[in-house]
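I keep forgetting this: the sequence line spells out the residues, with the fold written below as integer tokens. I include a record here:
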Amino acid sequence: MFAIENIPDNALDATLSTRGGRDIARQFAHMHMVRVWRLEATSKKLATGLERFEKGKSPDKKKLLKALEHSGEAVQRLSQGYIENAGKVANFKRGVIPTLAYLISHEAHHRGSILLTMKQSGFRLPDSLKWGIWDWNKFADKR
């Protein structure tokens, strides 16, 4: 959410792909959809009503923020349920910690790709984004 809020609107369509790969907006949409797919595999009820982005479409910032907020809340409820169930996760035998580590790793990978795409596409990273992603104490204050 913090990254999207600090990326200029005109950077969302930046891509380094020469073969139709994801632009920045589609990378954020993909991050959301992986959350949705994980929720569908483990708790269809929590996935109900979440935004589904069509492959190849680049949603605007408002849609991305709303979708990621809702899927984040659903993952939080799912995680709480796992913790209350002794860490057991449906359809992922390794449990809650590897499940959350998977989601975090996936999103960290794309965040790095997004920042690199911005840099190599000629967009200057705002200081708020460049340094702010590491100031985790401020995140607690914002939410």
User: Anything to note?
Assistant: The mean pLDDT is 88.
